[in-house]
């Protein structure tokens, strides 16, 4: 598995950050502009990545105020999972997004840049939305 990760400090209690990330309805706010046809519930999100693929993601595990595991609910172009990790950090919270993807050499060359960009974008946007 190839991993892509980014983290940010947010001046909010860990409970508030975890509650926001735990509801997939909120994740639309974290997505870049090339995401469309978004529909979601608290546990599942469906969307299309422009010129790429349709994805259906679901929350498969929640560990209160620590971790949210999101995995494909339907066949994805490659095996992947997203893991949001939250931890109390003094007066605020550290939030970290880790995306693990099973990429062959060709996919790794094509998808590594966009996946890291997505991770960085989501984390930076989380800081703006909750900042």
UniProtKB/TrEMBL annotation:
Keywords: Glycosyltransferase, Transferase
InterPro entries: START-like_dom_sf
Domain of life according to the entry: Bacteria
GO MF, any single term: glycosyltransferase activity
Keyword Transferase: yes
Protein's name in the database: Orotate phosphoribosyltransferase
Organism: Pelobium manganitolerans
